[in-house]
Amino acid sequence: MNDTASYPIGTPGQPWGPAEVQAWRARQVRHRSYETDVVRAIEGLHERFDVIEYGRLEYPPDLYPLFAIRSRDWNDALPCMLVTGGVHGYETSGVHGALRFVDLHAADYAGRANLLVAPCISPWAYERIHRWNHDAIDPNRSFREPSPAQESAALMRLVAPLRDRILMHIDLHETTDTDESEFRPALAARDGKPFEPGTIPDGFYLVDDTERPQPAFQQAIIAAVERVTHIAPADERGEIIGSTVVAPGVIRYPLAALGLCAGMTGARYVTTTEVYPDSPRATPEQCNAAQAAAVCAAIDHALAHS
């Protein structure tokens, strides 16, 4: 694909209207079950953690309850750590890495930190292995008021009472080959813009906040993850996905200005992870383990430097 004419929906140079969104939605196929993969896993955590339903997505005929997992021994005197996954439903290890962290590691922080984990923010997209929600909106550009995405609005309501008390927020993502083959061409078509081909970095990297960088925090996470999987190198321009590499495996975005999930709180320590599940050097298990390792390293650094 090298221009919007290659995408099967829309007219090149013209943004989509309701008819094009409906045509796009009609092409989406349910490939997996949120109930089976995610809800049942969360139910298995009930005995050890509090599980709260913080909203419901209504996309008739589908209805998706949204769940967050919370420390059972919540103590307002302790720092709060927020972990989010599945903002983009197709980024599988973001969901299962968050669940892995809760299952294997969250208990280690009992009495030291309050944990709030929202593992699958966009279940409609999780089932269809897509970046956008039912309305062809990217939830990860929608963390602003008023939000155009039900998924983002629900999470912001959940976090609002804690927003200024959250010390650390880590948002778990993937970069996949389908970013280049499907999602970026679809974005160009939806917005009536030309598609500009890019490259997919091979390995794990982080996105720091341009406005409030925390380089030592980012490097602590990189150091932990490189024991699990490889770190993405800079390209020949010294960049990863078009952004300057400021340290090994680290780039920066203005998180809040872009409406990104990682920019939704006033947390001192924030980051977005990106793993590459299509790499011949990584397995799905490694990707999930890398996400969990990143969460542990993020919490450990925040606690040590709070």
From TrEMBL:
InterPro entries cross-referenced by the UniProt entry: Peptidase_M14 (IPR000834)
Name by which UniProt lists this protein: M14 family metallocarboxypeptidase
Cited CDD domains: M14_REP34-like
Family assignment from sequence similarity: Belongs to the peptidase M14 family.
Domain Peptidase M14: from-to ranges: 30-306
UniProt xrefs under Gene3D superfamilies: Zn peptidases
Taxonomic lineage: Bacteria, Pseudomonadati, Pseudomonadota, Gammaproteobacteria, Lysobacterales
